[in-house]
Automatic annotation (TrEMBL):
GO terms for molecular function: electron transfer activity; heme binding; iron ion binding. This is Cytochrome c-551. Binds 1 heme c group covalently per subunit. It comes from Halomonas beimenensis. InterPro entries: Cyt_c-like_dom, Cyt_c-like_dom_sf, Cyt_c_ID.
Length: 114
């Protein structure tokens, strides 16, 4: 009986973790949409305007460049991936807080592990 209860409790915890992970993915997808990241970036490989999140995740796997990536999200710039600028000239994007930038970078880097 104890084993059955322990198994059920473990199953509930795992299901909760999977559900929380799905919720976080949805939250980060929504944040990326709100901050207009998806106007230029896609989840997969290169897009016509900018590298896809999966390409970014692969290039910066390991997380050593996380601080650099947070700065890129916050300040934009150019020449960090070919000749593209972020945001594109003439394009306005909503302000991104440092916490939001960290969350987005963690989400993007996590795509390398998927």
């Amino acid at each position: 009986m104890k084993t059955l209860i322990l198994s059920m409790a473990t199953g509930c915890l795992l299901l909760g973790a999977v559900s929380a992970g799905a919720d976080m993915h949805g939250d980060m997808q929504q944040l990326a949409e709100e901050k207009q990241c998806l106007s230029c970036h896609g989840r997969e490989d290169m897009t016509p305007r900018a590298p896809g999140f999966s390409s970014i995740a692969a290039k910066y796997a390991g997380g050593e460049m996380k601080g650099y990536l947070v700065d890129v999200v916050l300040t934009g710039g150019e020449d960090h991936w070919g000749s593209a600028t972020m945001p594109e000239p003439g394009m306005q994007r909503p302000e991104v807080s440092e916490e939001e930038a960290r969350q987005l970078v963690d989400w993007i880097l996590g795509m390398h592990e998927e």
